[in-house]
Amino acid sequence: MSTTPAINSAAGVPGQHLLRVGDLARATGKTVRAIHLYEELGLLRPATRSSGGFRLYDAAAVERVRWIDSLHGLGFSLQEMRAVLQNWWGSHQGPTAMAGLRELFTRKLADTRDALRRHQQLERELEEGLRYLETCDSCAAPGPVRACAHCSQDHGVADAPALVAGIATSPENVVRAGRAPVVHVQEPQR
Fold it and tell me: What are phi and psi of 159, to 5 degrees?
């Protein structure tokens, strides 16, 4: 429960329950800065301000922040959300607004499906890498890690999976001690 009490009818609307910015942040799991950012971008507006100048939000603000969070989870940027709202409220006809929203959702669905395909491919590569690495538990010739780059153990596959092969190749190019090697470049003399 909030330690800061909500304010009733501060906006002159009898019985309306208003929240201060910190209460809205706590109710939605966001930071006060995030709430302020949403306001700066035009995604959220306080219902009013108190006589002391504090932002006061109504219950619709909680739903709006949840909407922002949902769209963010679907991959929408804050700028895209702002454009959605501007296009929606800037449309003079409902069907025009709906068509724009449908077009955007169609694009996002295609993006989501592409991301799922990429994640499924990554899942397969990780599974292949794990199967390969499980055979290393019983290494026939344990030795230094450099020997793993040229491993002759039967891992059940012709070649190491890409995720494993990428680690095992070019050990000379690995940066040691967190710093790149120093290369001295001399300017040609004129």
Answer: -130, 155
